[in-house]
Amino acid sequence: MPAQPRAAPATVFTDMAGKPHTLADFKGQVVVMNLWATWCAPCKKEMPTLAKLAGAYAAQPVKVLPISVDRDSDVNLIQAEMPANRPLVSFRDKTYKMSFALEPRAAGYPTTVIYDKQGRERARISGEADWASPEARGLIEALLAEK
Hints:
The chain has 147 residues and is α+β, with helices and mostly antiparallel strands.
């Protein structure tokens, strides 16, 4: 966890239809932002656990936000990956802007950053994690309990 919670970057990313979004769009929710790619084996391995996390908190103000850094030529691979991981819906950052906007920048993929309801970074994990674990749920529960 950062010593001082950092504000989320204002970096624009898109949904699969190309509509722009920023992390501020999800303020008021605990956001689990996961930077991933279809060519990243650990990313694909952890995706089902992110889907379980999203499903477990579907009725609460929690947004699991997978953001793919894949190229345009690999959109079909993103689309092929997501149906097995419902209720997740992928977003895109094909120019890696979000990876470089993070402070410190993303060291590789997957990188997962958790933001509180005020949009401040509260935790970060570089590398694969089990998002269905009691530890992951404990962190989400703690952030949900905050005012």
